[in-house]
Amino acid sequence: EDKVVQSPLSLVVHEGDTVTLNCSYEVTNFRSLLWYKQEKKAPTFLFMLTSSGIEKKSGRLSSILDKKELFSILNITATQTGDSAVYLCAASGGSNYKLTFGKGTLLTVNP
Amino acid sequence: GAVVSQHPSWVICKSGTSVKIECRSLDFQATTMFWYRQFPKQSLMLMATSNEGSKATYEQGVEKDKFLINHASLTLSTLTVTSAHPEDSSFYICSASSGLLGETQYFGPGTRLLVL
């Protein structure tokens, strides 16, 4: 059975801190690893990673994939209160680009 | 680009009624649409995958006669919850993907269903 595990499940930090969110996966016919940010509504897309070792960056967020260790991390530097959300990791595999989601990491950034 | 809309955003209904939720890709053609359900403080659970013009593929444990999915065009899919019961109350989210956009799924804003 396909599985995605995220850690930690929740995290509380102060503004300005740097955080690292972890995601490990076991997915048949793995294609790509995706990160989403979910606030009160549906998830918004952050990154899609397909190749090992190549960092993707968008502002203060960055992510990297290790296909040998079946692992990805999402880094957020200089956190802001607006970064508070649930961060979801999902692995794409099989036919139809089906996504298997982890349970998410609830990040709370306090002023 | 890659905008997905859902309607309605909120619905409250009586037990036993049917509820239809629409999912539309506004600026791209969605060859595949996905329907998820999310209970409070839990992750997204895939219910079914639908390709335009063909029958949906349901995940294990999801009753296809209860959750009717129609993907009649490349921009519209509908989920009908038939004979809804209180335990069907949840947050229903659709997503869409297109070969041209790769594997990324773009999510609609979700529909909160409350069955009384």
How many helices of chain B does DSSP assign? 0
Number of strands of chain B: 11
Helix content of chain A: under 10%
Average pLDDT of chain B, rounded to a whole number, is 90
Structural class of chain A: mainly beta
Question: Any idea what the radius of gyration of chain B is?
Answer: 13 Å
The span between the termini of chain B is 37 Å
Radius of gyration of chain A in whole Å, from Cα?
13 Å
- Overall geometry of chain A comes to globular
First-to-last CA distance of chain A: 41 Å
Shape of chain B: globular
User: Largest sheet of chain B, described in full?
Assistant: 7 strands, mixed
Give the SSE order of chain A as H and E letters: EEEEEEEEEEE
Alpha-beta classification of chain B: mainly beta
In oligomeric terms, what are we looking at? heterodimer
Helix content of chain B: under 10%
Strand content of chain B: over 45%
DSSP strand (E) fraction of chain A? over 45%
Tally of DSSP β-strands of chain A: 11
Q: H/E element string of chain B?
A: EEEEEEEEEEE
Q: How many DSSP helices of chain A?
A: 0
Structure write-up:
The complex is a heterodimer of chains A (about 110) and B (about 120). By secondary structure, chain A is mainly beta. Helices cover about 0% and strands about 60% of the residues of chain A. Chain A has strands spanning about 5, 10-15, 20-25, 30-40, 45-50, 55-60, 60-65, 70-75, 85-95, 100, 105-110. Chain B has no helices and 11 strands. In chain B, the strands form 2 sheets. In chain B, strands 2, 4, 5, 6, 9, 10 and 11 form a 7-stranded mixed β-sheet that branches. The radius of gyration of chain B is 13 Å and the shape is globular. The mean pLDDT of chain B is about 90.
